Amino acid sequence: MIVTYRREMKHNYLIIEQDNAQMQRYEENMLKENKISGLLKFQLKQIDNRKYFYYEITSKQPLSRILEFHSINKQELINLSTGIAQILNRLPAYLLKEDQILLQPEYIYIEPEQFFVSLCLIPGRDRKFSAEMSELLRYLLGKINHQDKECVVMAYALYQESVKDNYGMDALAELVSLHNDKLEARQEEEECETQSGFTNTEKVEIQVIEEFSSPAQNKTTGFGLWKPLIISSVVVTGFSAVLWSVAGYKGILRYWYLVMAAGVLSVLFGFKLTGRNQCQHPVEDSPPKDRSYDSEQEEWQTAFYESKEESSVLLKSTAGEESLQTVLLTNSQKDMQVRVFKSASTGIGDIIITYTPYLIGKQEGLVDYVLNGEAISRIHVKIEKEENDYFISDLNSTNGTYVNGRLLETNETVLLNTGDEIFIANFAFIFT
Fold first, then answer.
1. 64-75, pLDDT tens digit by residue?
2. Are 172 and 155 in contact (CB under 8 A)?
3. Could you tell me whether strands 11-17 and 351-353 are parallel, antiparallel, or unpaired per DSSP bridges?
4. Positive or negative CA dihedral for 211, 215, 216, 218?
5. pTM for the full predicted model
C-alpha cells in the first residue's frame, strides 16, 4: 500500500495505491455510489491499469497530529469510541466489512472542533479489526490527559476489554455507554450537592450527629433550665431557715422581701453559671471521616488517586527547586534564537517563533498562535526546526500555504530562508 497526498483546486486528498489483485469490484462501487456517513468521501481513478483511491481530507486532521500537541480528554474519548462504533454499525447495510477499515492514528481523521470521526475504508483490504482496535486503544493510553481521572479510568477499561478473547466493538460501545451514564449520574449528584450546600458524606455525618447527639443535647438543655431553679430553692430555703432560727416566724414575715431578693439573685446566678459551663465544655467535634474510595474499586482505578503525603512531598520538592529552575530559564533565554514571521498585512501582528514545533491556525486550544480569518483553517501550518534550519508544513489547509509564490502540496514541508515571502491563506508574512 503506497500512500501519497495531493492538492487539487481547494480540495486535499489522501491517495492510496492498492496492489491487491483480489479486491472485489462491488466494494468500489458501493463506496463510489453511496455517501456513507463517517467514511471519507471516495473517488476511484485508474491510470495505466493501476487503481488509485482518492479520499478527501480537506479541513480534517489526522488523530496522530492532533494528539501530538494535545492530550485527549474524557468527552473526546467518548466521541472517538462511539464514532467508530456507529460507523461500523452502518457497514453491513452496504455489504462492507470492518476489517477493511484503517485504524492507524495517521489515517483516522478528526474534525478538530467537535472531534467528529471519519474513517478510511480500503476495498479489498483484509486485516484483523479487533487486533488493530486493541493497538489503537494502547496508543491512546499514552495520549490521555492524566489530570482527567474519569478519562484515565475509561481508557484503561476499554483497553482491558480489547485484550479479551473474541471481544467485539459492541462490547466497547456498551462499556463507554456504561461509564458515560455513571458520569452523568455523578454530575447530577454534584449539582444537587452544590445547590444544597452539603456533599453526600457531609449529609450522612449531619444525620448521624443529629441521631446520636440530639438526646444528649436535650438532656443537657433540660438540666440547664432546672439548675437555676434548684439553686434558687436551696438558697431561699436556707435563708428562711436562718431567719427562723434568729427571729422566728415573725422574722420571716417581717423580712419577706429579703427572702424574695435572695431567690431572684440565686436564679440569675444559676443561669450565669450554666452558660459559663457550656462555654468551657463545648461538644467535641467528631473525628474527620475517612473519605477514601471503596475497597471494591479496581487496582488500576484507585492507583491514579494521589495520597496527601505524596502531594505534600511533591509541593515541598517543587518549592525547594523553584529558585534553581528560575535560574536555568533565565540562562537559557540568553541563548535563545528567536525567528519572526514579520507581518506584511494590515491589522495582523508579527508572529514570534519562540519554540518548535509551532502551530498556526484559528482553532484556539489546539494551536500556538491563533490567526483569525475566514480563509484560515483550524490547524493551518506547522513550523519545525532541525539544528539551525526552520521548515514550514501545510496541514491539509483549505486555502493553502504559499512560499515565494509556490503553493505547497498537502502535508508538504519546505525549508525556510531569511527573507522568504509566506502567504498563510491570504495573510502575508516575511520570514526574518
1. 998 988 899 988
2. no
3. unpaired
4. positive
5. 0.61
